[in-house]
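Handout, page 2. Input:
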Amino acid sequence: MSELDSRYVYRGFWVNHSKGPIMGRTITTDTKTSTLVIAILAIMSTLGTTYLWNILLFLYHQIRATGKPSDVLFRQEQALIRTLPTPASLATERLKLWFLWRRKVGHTAFRGLFTVLPPALYAIGALFASIFTSAIVSTSNLDVLVRSPFCGFIKQSTPEQGRASLAAYTKSYEGNGVSYAAECYNRDTTESARCENIFLRPSIPFSITEGPCPFAVNMCITDTSPSVVMDSGLLDMNDYFGFNIKPVENVKFRRRTTCAVLSAEDHIRIVDRSELEGSEGYQWPPRYELSHEDYVVILYGGDGRKKNPTWKDVTTQRSLLLANATLEPHAA
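Output:
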């Protein structure tokens, strides 16, 4: 999210539900604080593994101290364990005892198995714990929680202001969307930094298939494969759109669009503006101070709310004069 302004990033504890309730626990801080956190974690992991080892070693010593008669090798092992050596030191010192007593005491190697193998495994585990401590903190390609004062409904004090704000917002995101789609969609790789960093996913996958006519069969221009179906399938709101919703509350979004070429025969008429006068919802003043104006009326079926039965099947209409008018720039 390199293009996100840092002032809109939420700082503090939050849960990234896409990674689960445990692995998704996240604390977002600035760079200075993260450096301090790494140092504290390194110290705490070292102290934690050291004191845990001492406790386990003391318990092992006490379990072995039964008071029963034992040989010299056993007593030397007890003395070695009681000094609370490090895992590596305990393993190496026990190997020395094996070398000294290998021909004097029976089963020396087997008896030392539980004194050499566990310390070696613990040492390896402590090493990995120290290494992965730094992996807890990430400084690149971060998933952050956005908290912006501009999220929500468009503020409006009057309906006119609301319409103006909505128009400006629509113009802005439509313009950005066209340029983004041209740059980031229909590409095998998205090498542009804009494609990689502005959204959680650079593009939304969808399939393109052929389908039947979505309308009455006689409305489509061809009977064989009359339509093209674009289907995104079910898209998880967290994975594709960057929402942070609990799994039990999550929803999936699907967009399915069917496009077909419609037959123009018997569905298009050219009428005079005067024929539209008196038809509810279709009466407009003439343009350019002309008394008559031709309109292209497309008849595929209306919305059923028109009271005038003459134009109830009108889908849309467009002025031929306005469509064919050419405006040339002129000096002010």
